[in-house]
Write a structure and sequence with these properties.
Oligomer: single chain
Helix content: 25-40%
Structural class: alpha/beta
CATH architecture: Alpha-Beta Barrel
Radius of gyration: 18 Å
Strand content: 15-25%
CATH superfamily: Divalent-metal-dependent TIM barrel enzymes
Distance between the termini: 14 Å
CATH class: Alpha Beta
Largest sheet: 8 strands, parallel
CATH topology: TIM Barrel
């Protein structure tokens, strides 16, 4: 069953952070386990891990963690790759300490390198929790800007614990999918279904960048070019996205929540 939630700020303990999940409207969340621009991952105590696991089980919840943005498994620089791989593996190990079934980590391809290199690094890692690669907005030399590169990486990785995270802002900005066109959204879900048993999730964000603008600029839902309030039919493509996500059991994380948009996003998801 698909669930929705928001990206939240991590608190002193993981258990405290998980209180965002109410078990009803919100059954998942996303957070960082370290600085988003640093090779670091917090250490979780045994007590915190146990309490967090029990809470997730009680709420039937799921915890998504976004890996550091500076991880670059694509790079041809072995020093950069090794730092990123070690950082990602430590985060995986930390989440496995909490729950191998109810935690997921999301990472980016990287830049100035190859999809093949990302695949090699992932295949050499111990994926004890699901690991999702996120598509990019197509800026600069960043990989993951189109469906072909996503497919290429899925074909290059062996573990069925390795899946895909589709970011709506990135998809729109890269020119991969215009979610305003319902037929393109439906085609994307058809394409994703060809990944068979690989897990899928969505980051739902609006975009301050126009379609195919090749810049990663998130906005709260209904405050960008994608799901804009000024268009009378703005809810229609969003509702269709939610319907497809729910029917396929695909979780959704709102990455740019605001006091106004979060309640709207969650309520609309449940009404769809």
């Amino acid at each position: 069953m698909a669930c929705c939630g928001a990206h939240v700020q991590v608190k002193d303990t993981i258990y405290e952070t998980l209180q965002y999940i109410d078990g009803k409207k919100t059954k998942c969340l996303q957070c960082f386990l370290g600085g988003p621009q640093r090779y670091e991952t917090r250490t979780v105590s045994a007590e915190d891990a146990t309490k967090s696991r029990e809470y997730l089980e009680r709420m039937n919840g799921k915890m998504y963690v976004h890996a550091s943005y500076i991880i670059n498994l694509a790079s041809s620089d072995e020093t950069i790759v090794e730092k990123g791989r070690n950082c990602l593996q430590k985060a995986i190990n930390t989440l496995n300490q909490i729950s191998s079934q109810r935690t997921v980590i999301v990472y980016h391809f990287g830049a100035k390198g190859t999809v093949e290199n990302v695949g090699r690094q992932i295949n050499d890692m111990n994926l004890t929790v699901p690991v999702f690669v996120e598509n990019s907005a197509g800026e600069g030399t960043k990989l993951g800007k189109n469906f072909e590169e996503l497919r290429h990486l899925i074909e290059a990785t062996d573990s069925f614990n390795h899946g895909v995270c589709i970011d709506t802002c990135h998809s729109f900005a890269s020119g991969m999918t215009d979610f305003r066109d319902i037929s393109q959204t439906e085609k994307l879900f058809e394409d994703l279904s060809t990944f068979e048993d690989r897990p899928i999730m969505f980051h739902v964000n609006d975009s301050l960048t126009e379609f195919n603008g090749r810049k990663d600029r998130h906005a709260p839902i209904r405050n960008g070019h994608l799901f804009n309030l000024n268009r009378p039919d703005s809810e229609t493509p969003l509702i269709r996205l939610y319907e497809l996500a729910k029917s396929s059991g695909t979780d959704i994380i709102f990455e740019t929540p605001s006091p106004v948009s979060s309640e709207y996003e969650i309520d609309l998801f449940h009404k769809s």
